[in-house]
């Protein structure tokens, strides 16, 4: 989603929307407190957030999964499959299309078996039946249906908690204090520009997205992205010595059409540019990906 600029400030509009934020926050806490979490019998790690918008949960979930896999554990991801059409399935990248799975599930399925299940308890049961020893939830921190042994809250270092108010007055799904009661660790992705670490009572880890080498025919590119904060992608490219001549933003989790890609190709060709996008966007292109380059990133986490 494209986050409103006023979520970072404490002005008239946020104050006017505060009563709606109180209602949203109370409804969230009521749902959590009255849920009866299912204990699936294996370790469940939740990678979640308390802010709206992209914070980098999926790369963090992948990094934690790779750590468990390196320790010899059979890891399964359980995700809701946002924007996907199918549910209660084990993702098969050769069988299921991007429209059926959504983008995040496809990224996860490249690393470990991935189950799409809006009701996380159902997904956990499927994973355990298939032999899971560790389940990693990508998102679902406010979902009370599955017991979590360990929860990591991920924050964008440039945003922190914004103006500290709850949706729609600010970016929070719940207060930092309430979120910390159910979590064990905090991860701040990128530089902590808001001083969030000083506000946290839990152990704080710092992470960054590290780009992998990308071979492109020219360093002059048209970069496009349908993610929460596309400007971060563009800055990452510039940090790799790429000349980002033009950019094109799309809504988060955008479903690209053939017409969209053809228009991007036309724009790039007109200026002699290469087309490049994020891995999250690239996995949705399918047969439309010809001639489009992809910048892959991995989360690096330090205590």
In short:
With 303 residues, this protein is an alpha/beta fold. It has helices at 12-33, 57-70, 98-101, 103-109, 120-129, 176-182, 196-199, 230-239, 258-270, 279-282, and strands at 43-48, 75-79, 89-90, 114-116, 134-138, 150-156, 185-189, 204-211, 220-225, 243-249, 274-278, 292-295, 297-302. Strand 6, helix 6 (176-182) and strand 7 (185-189) form a beta-alpha-beta unit.
Q: What is the succession of H and E elements? A: HEHEEHHEHEEHEHEEHEHEHEE
Instruction: Count the E strands.
Output: 13
Give average pLDDT, whole number: 94
Taking the sheet with the most strands, its summary is: 9 strands, mixed
Q: Which regions contain 5 or more consecutive residues with pLDDT less than 50?
A: none
Strand order of the largest sheet: 3-4-2-5-1-6-7-8-13
Q: Classify the secondary structure makeup into a structural class.
A: alpha/beta
Give the helix level as a range of percent. Answer: 25-40%
Strand residues, percent: 15-25%
Rg over CA atoms? 20 Å
User: What is the molecular shape?
Assistant: globular
Helix segment count?
10
In angstroms, what separates the terminal alpha carbons?
29 Å
